Amino acid sequence: MRKLIADEILSNPRIKHIFSDYFDTIVHRTVHPNYVLRLWAKKMIQQLAMPLSIDELYFTRLESTKYLVSALKRDASEINYEVLISEIYTRLNNNNLEGHANSIEHFIKISEEVECSTEYSVQFLNDETVNTLKHLQSKGLKIYCVSDFYTSEKLIKKLIKAHGLSDIFEAVFVSSDQGFSKHVGGIYEHLLDQLDITSDQVTMFGDNYKSDFINAEKIGIKAYFIPNKDQKRIQKRLVLGNDTKDYNQIIKSIYTRCNSKTAPPYSDYVMFFALFTEKLYAECMKKKIKNLFFLAREGLYLKRFFDHYQEIHRLKHGHTISTHYLKMSRQSALQIVLKSIENEDFTYFRDKYKNISLDNFLKNFSFSTEDHTLIIEALNLNEPSDVIIKDFFNSETFEALLKNDIFKINYESNRQNQKKAFNNYLDSFNAPYQEEGVTLVDVGWGGTMQDKLHEYFDKKITVNGYYLGLKEFRHQIGHQEKNINRRGLNFEVNLFTSFSSSVMMANTELYEQLSQAPHGSTLGYKDNPDQYTIEYHEVNEKQVYDQYIKETQDFMFDVFKDYCEKTNLVCYNLDTASEIITKFALKIGTIIPKRKLNRVINLSKGFYDNIGNNEVGESLYEMNVLTGLKNKLSTFKNYIISPEQLIPYVMRTKLTLYTKNKLFFIPSFPLYYYILLNRFLKKQIGKKVYLKYAHFR
């Protein structure tokens, strides 16, 4: 508390009222005042999906202010907030840049909310001044907040309430609403008249020598200048800065934190989940998506990220997305689109699981154990049912199965029951999917469940999908499927495989395992409102989740919350974020210490494929660099020109050698530095010659 000032004021019986400045008197900011306007621009663009950059909106605001100062012959702080925001909207609307703002009134409401949330996020209390004001209030003095500010009194009141200071102030007066300012000086006489008091009954607190001290004393108000020199020096330093460097530093700190000895190995993948979440939110705001269906099982963790991100960015008058968790797997999705046995050709199984046992084929249907056994016994096989049959769908066993009456009856019953149960399950979400379509969210990689859901709707309802990544682009040559689109937000091959996509898609198995759910896979559906899904949690898979994945997920989520808090105060765009995170993805994909290899070995024990031959474990990681080279010897030069294509083989090769002999640990960091050199040379050469269009990406 400023005891000397308080004692001096209390010693004067004539003083009954205190005028106090707000900024740098009651509160300080962690950023420069101009940076607050850039943060406002960033969030306005995010919330209204405006097609312009942060700097473009920022300078539009500055130019609007400059124009109104000239046109209205007023100080900038005396311009009414709604007049200013209306001018900004008019300029944007004239150039079709207003985004989803459907009126000036809507634009103003969003702006007020963004202004308030942005200001509060960068403010902290000046406890010394606040305690002084509380002490003076306790002695019977009336406290008023008097501020030169470009927003409304309503907004300052909201900030005061958010700081828990509402009980201190009798009233709040802001220059933009009053039409007078401290900077010009007119607000003092205006408030004396409005409150019906005299100048000798008032004392003024403030940090601006001219506005708060000189201009107050000119009309006889006793004023106290509170310079806050330390804060002023900080503000001057805050003028300097670089948004890209600030964002890079945040990602670098995450990488360092997640690669410490106390952090779970591969928790640095949190940066990829964070990037995906931001991009997904931007897409939802851009397309005004109302409902998102996160697909099991990886979708549960993705939903956790998205829900937190939306919670901290959601506005009262802004667009809100309802999120749902849809339990579906390839096995359950395939069952809801089965045709009658006469018309079903089992294309998916023929393409993906050409060699399969009869037992495993039957497990892809929700038959009871008893019916499963009866079908096998009725076929009178000459060999065990769990023996894998080569070219199963052209075998005598498969032909006999299709003619078996027990199989046909159970197949048809299961087909009808699955469709009915799934339809009721989908309706239970109370989402108007028949009108607005379905938007799915999943980790990736091809979109099988999206295709099957679209097929379930007879291709009459739009089914779009957003994935962390896409490794294949599915469409019929010469035919564009309607009502179905898919995007890989972190990487995709829809256009072409870029450098960033090559790096980010290196170890997709880890994305899947790190985002696993604590429940089993969906085998099918049952018409039971209490539990629509039939699930199975493979023992090894559950054990790996409980022992390794849950801990890693909780750690990553804590890191993500910290990421959200820090990035909220940095003005960056998603292209910048993608570029920086790609650089760290390159490091993560090529520099792999022993502790990470050991974690992959442990995680792979719980890798369970619930369809086909139900593979479990390390077989899903079996791909080494020799295999890759053998398959692509004709394009070996690609590895020299585009060495990023080697990244998918690095971890697998090290893992193969390491599991055979722990001494076979080969450092892979030379590839990291070669790729960096390769990228540098490409950029230098690409500027001068046309090799870029023949070889470089």
Automatic annotation (TrEMBL):
Q: Check the record and name the PANTHER family matching this protein.
A: HALOACID DEHALOGENASE, TYPE II (AFU_ORTHOLOGUE AFUA_2G07750)-RELATED (PTHR43316:SF3), HYDROLASE, HALOACID DELAHOGENASE-RELATED (PTHR43316)
| Any single Pfam family the record assigns to this protein | Hydrolase
Which lineage is the organism of this entry classified under, starting from the top rank? Bacteria, Pseudomonadati, Bacteroidota, Flavobacteriia, Flavobacteriales
Query: Domain of life of the organism in this record?
Result: Bacteria
Membrane-spanning parts: 663-681
Q: Which UniProt keywords apply?
A: Hydrolase, Membrane, Transmembrane, Transmembrane helix
Q: What is the name of the protein in this document?
A: HAD family hydrolase
Q: Which GO terms describe its molecular function?
A: hydrolase activity
